[in-house]
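Researcher: Here's a chain I'd like modeled. Treat it as a single chain, no partners, no ligands.
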Amino acid sequence: MKIDKSLFHPDYKPEPYWWEAARPGEDHAADLPATTEILIVGSGYAGLSAGLELAREGRDVAIVDSEAFGFGASSRNGGGLSGGVNIGKGLSGGPGQKLSAEERAIQEQLLRESAASLSLVETLIERESIACHYERKGRYLGAFTPEHFKSFKAKSELLNRVTDAQSTVIGPDEQRAEIASDFYHGGMVIPKSGKLHPALFHKGLLDAAHRAGATLCAHTKVTAITGQAGDFTVKTTRGDCRAEQVIVATNGYTGELTPGLRKRLIPVLSHIIMTEELPRDLAASLIPQGRTISETPRVLNYYRMAPGDRRMMFGGRPRFTDVGADVTAALLHRNMTDRFPQLKDARITHSWSGHVAFTYDFLPHLGREAGLHYCMGCNGSGVGMLTYLGYQVARRIVQGGALDSAYANRELPRVPMPFYSGNPWFLPIVGGYYRFRDTLDRRFTG
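Model: Modeled as a single isolated chain. Structure tokens:
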């Protein structure tokens, strides 16, 4: 692919824009203890949330990461908090799908807990004084086709009844109040959603876990876990540690350490660009209510204004292979200008990617595997859901195994692909098919 070099600012960097304010580092890094009550593998939102809650409860907890703290998706995502909008497609109650009374009760409980993730994040930000540019400005879900728009009324009514989302549906003739674009066929406004600076939120959780007494061990790769619940030996590149309980919180970076979990997750690269500072009037006109924007196609994009409201952050999955930051930047810029032609001259200052983990049922999960606790499968809603699931795993341990959560002990299904062991070889094929279907839907129902 030939890349137009004029798309890139002279100061362009193929790394996360968020690192300008909070670069992954060695803050509070400690030596691995010989023993601990609870060891957590992974220092993203889930691991830090679990570690913080456990430490506050007086438990002896160590959090280890194979990289610098904040190197993974927790400092690479879009910073959106959906507040319960996204749940598994298998329980969506979509057109033609009838749910049993039991399935509907489960769906509603999952929705309520998803909405609770927003409240938890807000509580943590306030209680721990985390300065991360948090704003509850809401979300706008754009209908990619008229058929998608037809489903919004029922979805809005469900969200409002179950979670008090305060959502409203607006037609295409009204959406200019939300977005300076005619790309969508109407949309849904969900005020109870938020946005933040993801790397600063991560740093705030890291600092809070340190203050609470958690031991934090960067560059400590776990190579093996042996034993059983109550007496695990965790082998790492920096020595061994004995732990009574282990939490695996690796999400999109789950590897050979836990092959049983790896076979149940599909790691997908999500790509993001950031523009240079835009003229003040232009920037203010793009998303006048300050919402985070998402949309309804199978292969979607998501975007928002960055803190300061002068830069556009635009993300998506323009390729299902790692083709390099420059190529994905050019593709995302094209998608951005499809929605905002007025940004054709906006140059890119940063381009980056990170792994998110999808599950076959499109639901986040927490549970136990071979005696290990786990929480993972954010499906693109990691800021809120992984923070929430990490907290819930901690509560399960504190409460001696009891946990009143619809996410607890739901079976984490295997990915039904031949010989699948965690390498998503099929993504380019499936992704290309989904993109083709989106093109057909747009062309023939638009």
